[in-house]
Amino acid sequence: MIKAIIIDDIEQARITLKKDLQVYASDVEVIGEANGVVEGAKLLKTLQPDVLFLDIQMQDGSGFDLLDILKEINFKIIFITASDAHAIKAFRYAAIDYLLKPVDPDELVNALKKYREHKVNENEKYKLLNDSLKNHHKPHERLALHTQDKIFIVNINDIVRCESNVNYTEFYFNNAKKLLVTRTLKDFEDLLCDQGFYRVHQSHLVNTRYIKEFVKTDGGYLMMNDGCSVPVSTRKRPEVIKMLEEL
Prior knowledge:
Elements: E1 2-7, H1 11-24, E2 28-34, H2 37-46, E3 51-55, E4 57-58, E5 61-62, H3 63-69, E6 76-81, H4 85-94, E7 98-100, H5 105-117, H6 123-134, E8 142-146, E9 151-155, E10 159-165, E11 168-173, E12 178-181, H7 185-192, E13 197-201, E14 204-207, E15 211-215, E16 221-224, E17 229-231, H8 237-245
Parallel strand pairs: 1-2, 1-3, 3-6, 6-7
Antiparallel strand pairs: 4-5, 8-9, 10-11, 10-14, 11-12, 13-14, 15-16, 16-17
Helix pairs in contact: 2-3, 4-6
């Protein structure tokens, strides 16, 4: 059985989540619940869950205030949050699971599926998330990338380009390193479009900082600073030329 704790200051939210777990996740046992930061910290000092369902904003503080009290995070955290654009984007940069209120049972099942598949220490991801939320007025500098067996925290400026590989994405870095990441190219286009990245082809997303030249022959392609060539789709060609003129 997966041992779970729920920390949320709204009693009805805790009741509803427990019912959903009973119906949609029969292998999850709720071993405790708390209504805030203080009560939650006391609970976590006596009970050790596998998964913590943690509300972000509570009456006596935030979920991060609670995490700061703990000496070590050796359990999976699934955050529960209201619809906040800054928070949601920060979660996606840190590749951390979150559930929007009211919780959708399908999203709950999906988050628990990820837990079963990837039981990893995620301390670094929580630090990245916390930094992102505290400095939401600044551009994100780092990104958490899931591969099949590890989570890498990378500097966004080190990414040269991304290439679609079915439901995966191949990342290419300025040190010639490569990573095959378990998310689609569309996911990263949404995240990185305001970070100087541009989708020049159905299968290619490039960091415009690393573009060396645009070759108009052979259908049109970009030469990158690392020596690779990236095709530009016919549909995207006028947009790419305009984008390069404005760099």
